[in-house]
């Protein structure tokens, strides 16, 4: 019985605020996303496994990239991957630096890719808080496509207003 009374009181309080009470609406910040598109060259260098690494351990690779287009710059990172038949996964961290929308700086990206019998799921995200220089505060997603061997990107991002 007490639970029923408490429930009724809570519902009444939520659905019927006190007269003259005004609730402050939460501030809503509209985020405008921009797009930077272009191509990039990538060099992937395998790293020899440790002599005592178990069979089937993830392979490790070093990444070196050069970006062309709306983002001009370079990047480097490391990738771990496992592949067996048509299925596998990889993770990577990379740091890129260059000029985006006239602003010079750098930021980090994290990759997560999964392939299941040929079906692919890829997410590359800008690491929150990683932006430096004029790219401080950047956030977004890096969309990657490979067409006829050419690596293409669409960086969907937002930046705070320039100071």
UniProtKB/TrEMBL annotation:
Top-level division of the source organism's lineage: Bacteria
UniProt keyword annotation of Signal present:
yes
Keywords of the record: Signal
Signal peptide per UniProt: 1-23
Q: Which organism is it from?
A: Brevundimonas intermedia
Please give the Pfam families that the UniProt record associates with this protein. DUF3224
Stated name of the protein: DUF3224 domain-containing protein
**Is the NAD keyword given for this protein?**
no
